[in-house]
Amino acid sequence: MIWQTSRFQIDLAVPRVMGIVNATPDSFSDGGKYFTPGGSYASVNEHCEQLVRDGADMLDIGGESSRPGALPLPLDEELARVLPVVRHAVQLGVPVSVDTYKPEVMQAVLDLGADIINDIWALRQPGAVEAVALHPACGICLMHMHREPLTMQVEPMQGNVVAQVLDFLMRQAAVLEALGIARTRIVLDPGIGFGKTVAQNFSLLGRQRELLTAGYPLLAGWSRKSSLAAVTNTSLASVAQLDIADRMVPSVAAALLAVDRGARVVRVHDVRETVQALKVWAAAGASQ
Fold first, then answer.
1. What's the CA gap between 92 and 95, in Å, rounded?
2. Is residue 129 classed as helix, strand or coil in its secondary structure?
3. Is the pLDDT of residue 170 over 90?
4. pLDDT at residue number 230
5. Is 7 exposed, middle or buried (0-12, 13-18, 19+ CB in 10 A)?
């Protein structure tokens, strides 16, 4: 199974680790740790390099937080955050993904050599499909999101979440294929935490194999999500009391479970630990 991207054909016969690079001051996990508005890009560029040394198969750069309640970011600000990081990252020898829903950002980063567009809106914004069409080999990740970041957790989904997510992703992928975009370019993401309850998120993990019936590779993004804190620290009054660093072990466990249930890409903050865990998983499978 190959994921066709701008510069690379990624072999998904082996599960791949996508390292998260937040060029933001306000992301829920590490906002401001590697980037400060108006500051130097040295820290975030060094973070890209470290993730590659830690074993990241690809990088995913984002300039706009999509945490619950996040406000939309002006286009100029997102471009100012993302473009310098992309310029550096495309020199590191691994595929570079950019997490954006704005067609202008898509166009700009693809022109700089980015390989993948990772869109929480699944290319539903006007002009998004046209932007990727101008780069006929770029990889695309379509994610399911209920409502939008500002309101998605105010009124989460209802009903059979697995069936709804599967139906949405299949329909969006079919739209792209009908426009001539090769299915080898498309990966699907069920959107853990994007408008779902804790129970619904774990339903998507427990029944993840049903999502594979769509016939596309699956990307899983469980890293440091609040649902992990909710089930591992039930004695706390609020999941917000759990330090983000304490979510590393649950995140690695969720990534392993996702891979074991068929995910071909896991999007993670803790690259080194996830890579180590996947090596153990692979060794156990190889010994059977």
1. 9
2. helix
3. yes
4. 87
5. middle
Query: From the candidates 225, 247, 261, 264, which is the catalytic residue?
Result: 225
Question: Could you tell me if 124 and 131 are in contact, meaning their C-beta atoms sit under 8 angstroms apart?
Answer: no
For residue 36, the model assigns a pLDDT of: 53
What does pLDDT average to over the chain? 90
Q: Comparing 71-75, 124-128, 207-211, which segment has the lowest mean pLDDT?
A: 71-75
pTM above 0.85, yes or no: yes
Residues 59 and 47: their CA atoms lie apart, in Å, by 10
- CB atoms under 10 Å from CB of 125, counted, come to 15
Among the options 102, 185, 264, 267, which is catalytic? 267
| CA gap 258, 253 in Å, rounded | 9
267 counts as catalytic: yes
> What is the C-alpha to C-alpha distance for residues 130 and 223, in angstroms, rounded to an integer?
31
**Secondary structure (3-state) at 115:** coil
All domains of the chain in start order, with CATH: 2-286 (3.20.20.20)
Please report the pLDDT score of residue 41 as a whole number: 62
Please give the structure tokens belonging to residue 93: 């020898």
- The reply to whether 279 belongs to the active site is no
